[in-house]
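Changelog-adjacent note: as of this version, every example in the card shows the full chain rather than a window. The one below runs 186 residues end to end.
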Amino acid sequence: MHEGKTEIQIFDYVDFRIPVFVRMFGKRINAYRKLGLPISQYGGQPREQLIYTPSTYWDVLKKDLGQEKGEIVFSIPYFVDHALRARLPFLTSLAGLNPKVTMILRARKTSRTTQMLQRIGITVQTTEEEIANFITIGDRVVWYGSIHLFGKIQSDDTLLRLEDPNYVADFRNIRENDEDLPLFES
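Full-length structure tokens:
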């Protein structure tokens, strides 16, 4: 350290449209968390609850989802049927409260799982292309990270919760305008 210096700032950025960069960013965020570094958005005050772990994310995410009346989009690059079925009661309730729930799944074809989701009122889109793991909630919140809601969750996985209309718009643009990410109605 240099004499008189008491602070180190790390500015990090990721292009969410490039999957390898997304994975590298997730690893860096996990490393920052393990080092005990406070994390802030746009250089604001550090917030402990910007990064969530497998033991801290679910209640906050459920609250965000339950309060939203606008569009909710789950982008799911990986899922396991039994993990998705375990969350089915919550998804059924969510779809009953909000008719604008969409799931984008990385899957080769329509499956029983996609048909089941459609039956409970969720719009399902499938793609064979690699997609990012995120949830956009209305125009205000995006959850992004390595915790796979419907897959295997590791103890060091994390999710970032960002309250920012610009991030939500960026994720929507990836979904809606990126020609390299074809989405097929199933």
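Structural remarks: Residues 39 and 152 are 26 Å apart (CA to CA).
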